[in-house]
Amino acid sequence: MASIFSRIAAGEIPSYKVAETERYFAFLDINPVQPGHVLVIPKNEVDYIFDIEDEEFAGLHLFAKKVAKALRKAVPCVKVGVAVIGLEVHHAHIHLIPINNDGDLDFNNKKTLPESEMKAIADAIAAEYAKEA
Predict the structure, then answer these.
(1) Tens digit of pLDDT for each residue in 87-101?
(2) Model pLDDT for residues 14-53, shown as the tens digit of each residue
(3) Helices (H) and strands (E) in the chain, counts
(4) Residue 80 region, left (φ>0) first, then alpha (ψ -120 to 50), else beta?
(5) pTM of this prediction?
(6) 93 part of the active site
(7) Distance between CA atoms of 19 and 48, rounded to whole angstroms?
(8) Domain 4-132, what architecture?
(9) What is the pLDDT, as a whole number, of residue 92?
């Protein structure tokens, strides 16, 4: 059975998409740690990130780097923090989180944002990503 992330990438479940290539997909986390929290996934469903084949693993990180650059331009922050946890959803993914201090990466402090804010953030990141693509 396909993971929820595979279903999101396939368009079966709606998302706040920020970037997509033939092999990778990036979208906003619906329960962000910080506004602008993005999840970056390979479309090829693999549970554990270190089980991804080398070429795809490198491509995923290069895609995440482009998304992070767009995120930093779209959402005011000092840096974009990166985390790979992978326990909640069995589909490898990278968290990109706008941060201004160490406490901004607290995964126990998830938020719920209004749909209008989520859409505005996704659109802003997507627009910045499109400039780089």
Answers:
(1) 889 999 999 999 999
(2) 999 999 999 999 999 999 999 999 999 999 999 999 999 9
(3) 3, 5
(4) beta
(5) 0.96
(6) yes
(7) 22
(8) 2-Layer Sandwich (3.30)
(9) 97
Among 35, 103, 93, 29, which Cα is nearest to 64's? 93
- d(Cα 5, Cα 1) in Å, to the nearest integer? 11
How distant, in Å, are the alpha carbons of 14, 35, 67, 69, 125 from that of 82? 24, 14, 12, 12, 16
Catalytic residue among 37, 91, 93, 95: 93
Could you give the C-alpha distances from 54 to 45, 51, 61, in angstroms and in order?
A: 15, 9, 11
Instruction: Kindly list the distances between the CA atom of residue 42 and the CA atoms of 24, 58, 78, 97, in Å, as whole numbers in the listed order.
Output: 4, 11, 27, 18
Here the tokens at position 113 are 């944002």
- CA-based angle 29:31:33, to the nearest 5? 85
Structure tokens at 115: 């749909």
